[in-house]
Write a structure and sequence with these properties.
Blueprint: H1 11-36, H2 40-51, E1 57-58, H3 59-66, H4 70-82, E2 86-91, E3 94-102, H5 104-124, H6 130-156
Antiparallel strand pairs: 1-3, 2-3
Helix pairs in contact: 2-4, 3-4
């Protein structure tokens, strides 16, 4: 497939578009969370848990990733467990730690809520060559790493 002819753009234009996407995504995340009966933080934490698949996620891992205290993450896990979104069990290697896993029913419920938007976003890729998609994926991955680094820096100050 051939890529479309694109108008010239600048880093400033791209960052403005990214800012708009982030703002819209924040509002969308709030709506998705509301639909599922969760807070945004709870939904973000559930996404981290579900995204881990079969890899174990501990309460401490979740607290670090979500930038919340271990006390706050306990409340988040309690709410997610009560809502049927996750299960928790002691870590067999260290019974002081808790391993949290997404329930298949909850993962499917969240997937169903996100699916219409994800389908539309996937459709956008039809306008791009595989090489262009590779550049987009690379940039988004690297931008995610930069954003995580900025979060870590803000935590230290």
């Amino acid at each position: 497939m051939e890529g479309r002819l694109r108008l010239p753009g600048s880093a400033t234009d791209a960052l403005a578009a990214l800012d708009d996407l982030i703002a819209t995504s924040i509002i969308g995340r709030q709506e998705f969370a509301r639909t599922l009966g969760l807070s945004v933080t709870d939904l973000v934490c559930f996404a981290y848990i579900a995204g881990a698949g079969d890899s174990p996620v501990t309460a401490g891992d979740l607290a670090r990733r979500a930038h919340v205290t271990t006390g706050a993450v306990t409340g988040i896990i309690n709410r997610l467990e009560r809502g049927g979104f996750v299960t928790r069990r002691p870590d067999p290697a260290d019974r002081r730690r808790v391993i949290v896993a997404a329930t298949p029913a909850a993962a499917e419920r969240v997937r169903t809520v996100h699916e219409p938007c994800h389908a539309l976003l996937e459709g956008l890729f039809a306008d791009y060559t595989q090489e262009e998609i590779a550049v987009l994926a690379d940039w988004l991955s690297r931008a995610g790493a930069v954003a995580r680094g900025c979060l870590e820096e803000s935590r230290e100050t």
